[in-house]
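Tokens in:
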């Protein structure tokens, strides 16, 4: 395939040739070959496919919520070409047998994938870490879906096991000891946010970073929802991700979302949401990952203390970010870094994340001049709702995974329209495909940070003393 006159993230207009699974050439006026399809990309953006480092595709155990076919189709339609599935399935991915079961199911994926290993009191690190896992985690420092929360001694064991094998550890950081138990007397939709406090996240991020720093290792902090948590991770030299729902939604939206807006960590006050967004823009945040956690609308339509936590997002993340790039709130280069280049660097995927010669041809073609409203009935997840209903977004027209077209629609058709077509299940385990982790090891792909200016212990102590309504 040859893309003619495509605009790349940095604004350059180039022809991009795909040969087999890779980008064969990026240049000006590349000659057309008889055996290749030509795509006129004039006025359109050609971007690297998104690497979503945090999804829950629910197989095995809850395939009525999502499965690898529907989840990966949703990913492909949203411009996501690699997903990383988390371990809190049923059974949890905590030993070699459970990993093998999930890997067999993932063979139905349209997009490339990584499979994370989990940590519980019953985990078997020897058999689990003998497999081609993507990372260890998310390691739950407080209970969430799947009841996989662990105490600090087991977290220390997990860090040691992972460090010995150059495996990244991803942490879900909330301190249950700082939850506001008085909120349990309430039954409104905002009670969940009042219960799982911002201080609980920031303190847990601080402690997790402190423990990792004491052992001269690094961690990746999942779905940070507070500006304080982001700053602590950055100051400690750790990496972190932010979800689209924590970028675009706040406790103000719970009036409309109701229990559909319950997730872990929960939505925050509007001022905190804006400051989280600011850190996405200014480079403090390393990546955007969706924490795509589908539940059916019937399951979510329950009392606040009974509704499951989680929202869908794998199909709408990149389109929402591209809508912001269209208006200038983000640059296209920042969108590329947040969704592709940085995840590839942090998680040691040297062949992914950029449109350059020799890279995997994971490509997304979009027309930034055309937006479409997000509609749940046009999305492809089994989950039959979205928290972003009605928001304008820029959806892909074409998605390639290692040179194979996995999603396509006519330029004049809407997302979810009659012209849509999906390709074959070409996805494969990125660790197996790459022969395991990159030889650089867990530090090789890390983003560089400035010198630490405060001790992690001091930062953690500061958080605990912080007043509950402090908007830092």
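Residues out:
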């Amino acid at each position: 395939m040859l893309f003619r006159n495509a605009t790349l993230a940095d604004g350059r207009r180039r022809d991009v040739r795909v040969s087999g699974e890779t980008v064969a050439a990026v240049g000006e006026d590349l000659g057309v070959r008889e055996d290749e399809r030509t795509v006129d990309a004039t006025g359109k953006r050609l971007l690297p496919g998104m690497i979503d480092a945090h999804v829950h595709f629910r197989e095995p155990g809850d395939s009525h919520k999502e499965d690898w076919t529907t989840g990966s189709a949703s990913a492909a339609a949203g411009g996501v070409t690699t997903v990383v599935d988390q371990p809190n399935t049923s059974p949890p991915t905590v030993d070699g047998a459970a990993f093998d079961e999930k890997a067999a199911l993932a063979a139905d994926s349209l997009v490339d994938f990584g499979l994370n290993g989990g940590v519980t009191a019953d985990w078997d690190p020897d058999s689990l870490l003998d497999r081609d896992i993507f990372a260890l985690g998310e390691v739950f420092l407080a209970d969430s879906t799947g009841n996989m929360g662990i105490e600090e001694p087991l977290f220390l064991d997990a860090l040691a096991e992972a460090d010995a094998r150059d495996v990244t550890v991803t942490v879900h950081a909330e301190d249950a000891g700082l939850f506001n138990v008085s909120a349990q007397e309430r039954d409104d939709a905002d009670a969940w946010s009042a219960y799982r406090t911002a201080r609980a996240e920031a303190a847990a991020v601080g402690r997790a970073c402190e423990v990792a720093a004491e052992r001269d290792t690094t961690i990746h902090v999942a779905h940070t929802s507070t500006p304080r948590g982001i700053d602590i991770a950055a100051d400690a030299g750790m990496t972190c991700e932010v979800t689209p729902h924590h970028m675009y939604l706040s406790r103000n939206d719970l009036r409309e979302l109701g229990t559909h807006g319950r997730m872990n960590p929960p939505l925050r006050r509007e001022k905190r949401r804006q400051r989280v967004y600011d850190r996405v823009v200014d480079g403090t945040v390393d990546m955007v990952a969706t924490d795509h956690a589908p539940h059916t609308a019937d399951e979510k339509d329950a009392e606040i203390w009974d509704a499951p936590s989680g929202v869908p997002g794998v199909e709408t993340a990149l389109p929402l970010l591209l809508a912001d790039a269209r208006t200038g709130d983000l640059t296209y280069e920042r969108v590329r870094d947040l969704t592709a280049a940085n995840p590839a660097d942090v998680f040691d995927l040297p062949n992914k994340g950029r449109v350059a010669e020799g890279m995997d041809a994971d490509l997304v073609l979009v027309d930034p001049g055309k937006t479409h409203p997000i509609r749940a009935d046009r999305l492809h997840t089994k989950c039959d709702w979205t928290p972003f209903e009605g928001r304008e977004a820029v959806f892909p027209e074409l998605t390639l995974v290692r040179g194979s077209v996995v999603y396509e629609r006519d330029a004049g058709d809407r997302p979810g329209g009659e012209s849509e077509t999906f390709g074959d299940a070409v996805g494969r385990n990125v660790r197996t495909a790459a022969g395991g982790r990159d030889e650089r090891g867990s530090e090789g792909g890390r983003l560089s940070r400035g010198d630490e200016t405060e001790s992690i212990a001091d930062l953690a102590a500061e958080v605990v003393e912080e007043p509950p309504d402090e908007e830092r």
